[in-house]
């Protein structure tokens, strides 16, 4: 399990004040998942946790912002994608042109 964080004291801030630390952490996590897959290792992005509990559990300082948990490991031979992943939704049902 990897805990993905960024340091808001050193992350780049845009002219309008946006903290790019979150963006960079998301990009890095995606790259880690792609590399894991390339090595035959499974991973899944987890964000469904209470940040306050996790930050306290890991005693993260104020400047460290947790973004995601990334469990990794070798998938079981029985592992299969969720049936929802094979459901196709038409473009007309997903997009509205204005």
Protein architecture, described:
This protein has 98 residues and is an alpha+beta fold. The protein contains 3 helices and 4 strands; from the N terminus they run βαβαββα. The protein has helices spanning 21-38, 51-57, 91-94; strands spanning 2-7, 42-43, 64-70, 72-73. A two-stranded antiparallel ribbon has the order 1-3. Strands 2-4 form a two-stranded antiparallel ribbon. It starts with a strand and ends with a helix.
Shape descriptor reads: extended
What is the number of helices? 3
Share of helix, binned: 25-40%
Overall average pLDDT: 92
| Unreliably modeled segments | none
Assess the beta-strand content as a share of residues.
15-25%
- Structure classification: alpha+beta
* Radius of gyration (Å): 17 Å
**Taking strands numbered 1, 2, ... along the chain, how are they ordered across the largest sheet?**
1-3
**How would you sum up the major sheet?**
2 strands, antiparallel
The number of strands is 4
- What gap, in angstroms, lies between the N and C termini? 43 Å
What is the element string, with H for helices and E for strands? Answer: EHEHEEH
